[in-house]
Amino acid sequence: MNAIVLRYVTSLAASAACLCPTLHAEEAIQQKAGALIASQNVPLLAQLCEQALRPGAEKERAELCKALIAHVGREDVSPVVKGELLTLLGRFGRAESVDFLAGLLPHADPLFHTRAVLALQHIPSEEAAAALRKALAAATEPERRAALLHALALRGDRASLPQFLKDAASTSDAVRTAALLGIARVADEPANALFKAGMKQGPETARREATNAYVLHADRLAKVGKRQEALSIYHELLGEGAYAKAAALLGMARAGGAAEVKAILESLKGAERSVVAITCDIFEHIPKSGAVVAAVCEHIKTAEPTLEVRLLEVLARHADPAGLATVLEATKDANPAVRAAAVGALGRFDDKRAADALVAALAGGKDTAAALRAVEISPMKSALADGLIVALPDASGARRVPLVQALRVCPADKAVPVLLKAAEDADAAVRGEAFLALRRVGDPSAYPRLVERLAEEANEQVQSVGVTAAAALGARVKDPSGRTAPVVARLAAGGGPGRPALLVLLSRVATEATQEAGLKFVREALGAQDERLRRAAIEAMAAWPDPEPVMDELLGASKKERETPLGVLALRAYCRQIGALIEKRAPSEAAHKEIVRRCSQGMEIAAQPAEKIGFLSHLGRQPHPDALKLVAGHLDDPRVKKEAVQAAWTIASALHKTHPDAVRPVLEKVRAATEDKQWKSRVEQLLRTMEATK
Amino acid sequence: MGQRAISRRELLRSAAAATATVSVVPRHVLGQGPMPPSDVITSANIGLGGVAQGVGADRVLARCDVRKDKLKGYPDPKQGRYLDFRQVLERDDIDAISVGSAEQWHAIQIVAALRAGKDVYGEKPMSSTIQEAAAIRDAAKRHGRVYQHGTQRTSDKPVQFARELVRRGELGKIVASGVGNCGHNELAIPCLWPAEPVHPDMLDWDLWLGPAPWRPFNKAVMHGVLAWHQYIDFGRNMVNGGAVHPNDAVRHILGYEREGPVEIYPPDGKEYKSITTWKYADGAFLQVGFEGLPIPEEARRRLGGGYEGPYLIIGTKGKLALTCGAFIWADPPGLWEGYAEFDPPHKLGHGGDWRTCIRTREKPICNEDAAYQTEFLCHTCEIAQRLRRPLKWDPVKEEFIGDDEANRMTSKPYRAPWHL
Fold first, then answer.
1. Which of B215, B303, B420 to mutate to test the interface with A (most CBs of A within 10 A)?
2. Residue B73 maps to which CATH number?
């Protein structure tokens, strides 16, 4: 900890009383501020000032500022603290601080004169602006003049306009630049000649500043109602490079609206890519009208593809029926980017023709990504559903996929029956998409049929998607027993080829209260001949809502199928459920002991470091001597040493006061085992602490 | 100025078009050949100490830092090494800029780069006041540039998936949300380091300070972001520097890209216990921490704080808790089904997303609007804590309603010649 922070912390307690809001008398405020400055506790002084900004405390705030002023003049206050006091005056001062700050403007030390300028720039009182103007009148040195003009410009001081206009012709780049900024921020009358001259004078930096100030000047003129004057500047700026052109076009849209549309469209023709890219932003500023749509439709015929794409987006945002014919025409364009933009635009139109075109695009297998995005936002969902339902039977295998995908955003009453049928399709891809769509659009009433369908599914990939879909629908069934009942019933009836999927589904939909009915099927499957069923049982047990009834089975399976993939899977599932058990149980001696016992059993079987690491991680969360002992046994194993060190350290940190004799030898072992300097240092620190408190 | 009318890339493109019949063969015809010069996006790094140093476009042509030791060689424009960022912005052959300087510089350099026609990656926090955040947003729009705010967390897949769930309405109407504490209550303080001699070969101290109030040199101030950001002249400490990460992610999940809160509450010990509570016009609220939010105690125990969240979203149909890296809890439990198949819209990482958008001219995930809203959360969190009173914000006028002192805190003064 550095000296200043330390001083701050130690004086904090002593100074805490200073924040007591009951002491408001002038003398008390002076005393408080004086004490804080003497102890260099400027952070707390700043808090005191903040507290004085509360309503009704104006007198207190002014007194505090007077105290700050008094201390800036004292010999015993360090320059750095004085600088901070000036900044506090800028943050909290008002009229009472101005004369003092103005007196510092000619100061030779930049710590004082620059902070005084900044404080006067930020103090909202008119007196502060007047002080800056007065100082400007007396300043001769260009650097000082520029700083004062700059402060007045950033204040937006309208009374300084005559001086800004005068100094805008200065030969000093700094003075001229500050003055142009001032004009741009406050002038309500055009001063074009000054900016144009500035754009040709001095180094590139100064010329760029002048151009940017000219944009700002035009913006302000437009804001105060001088739209024609502003527009003439924007038109001039069209020839000043892409960055100024973009700003000019946006300005034209804002100031001129629909009247500028033709000029804007002409300027966009052949414009730089970065300018064309903001076409939509430009049109956002123009009120929507039929005339704008007509102009865009006319212009689109001769636009190059990059601009055509953006203009189609403009038509989409208008969603005016008058623009639909142009969009529909563009869906047949040879350029894929144009076609995709047109198809995407269809989603904005509340018109059956747009819905029909989207269905045609999906059924035709062209631009399907754009069509699916459009379907998502289309206001024509019901018409879309009708079209999709008609198109589906006629479409061939792969062509059915996007049609089914589109149904996921259609009204459930129309989409769900079709999707349930599609889930029986001969094509696995269609079935998979149907399950995914049902996941989104399906309602609880479809859940039992979806379970039935899943029971008949033989394809493992589709089963996996089906489990996801059924679990999502099951979650929407309000009664928890209604989620497990259809699955249990189907399992009892034999299950079908999708039996493994049903077992996994059980683990997703069962709760602690409803688990019992399904548990026997999962246990049975664990002993089945069919490896797929055994795997599904392990997967189900890994995610089972209650760890306790399945842990012994998982441990047994990992022993039985030792060193096979299923055995490893079972051991990992066991480890996962130990984690769930830790979350479930409130910390207690018995709970810690049980976790340690289970971890010990798991580690006996674990052959791979990955599994051991999992158990070590759980052990690290058990503040118990048995856990520490078990972890210590793995400090010599190079494959898991890092995790063992971490776990040992966590346990030792929790136990070093209550079980020092158990902790000390383990810490010494950790120190010897680790090569990491940080760990060594931490361990040594803890050992020293233990030694000191012996 | 007429010389700046066409940028390098545009010049190369038009030249290529003029001679297309003889010299340009599309890359797909040639196979995986070298990128044509007109497609190469060039960039420069301003500030060489932080993570933004690693963000660049196809070719990094220049590196700039006021610290000569960071430049790894004396300033030499021919070698692409600069002390003054303005010289970098004058180069027409540079398309994009990554700003990772000290925090007092961020907004000014970002705005200057946007005005100079560069696409910008702005390291977080991009601003130290609401006015600065708004200036960045407005400059990006005014000049049609691609801007990415370097907050990182929104590029993580779980965050984008959660956004998708909210967008699809799977949680219903969002009514409440919480974000883990990431230094939201750690405010910047005055800097009292004494004067030290500065070695002339080390840096240009006046340029390091830039728009900040002048103060004598002390090397402790420059010891990386965690040094300078705690001082109010240079940064805003963790309330912005740290909290900006989770604030950005939760804002993204909630979908507030152009809408900000209209009421801000500091803790009052009664109704509002959190460090800050933000209320939106649609009635939803966001708070720091999770106290009082209707979730089971078992789930609450698993919610901590830090750079990666967590975030808790409560809707009329569902509740979801997650971090940037994982889902923690959901009600109903199946909410994050489909995560594995989810294809995030911004999947190339934060820098990759920026580079892609420079080409496509689309909006990156943390574009100027999103960035403004995120930093607005940070700044209002600070102002409400400093003033210890509820604040009301007018999003049209962009000012606090009836509170002069709060409005004064929305901006700060700048040393000449620097301005937004």
1. B215
2. 3.40.50.720
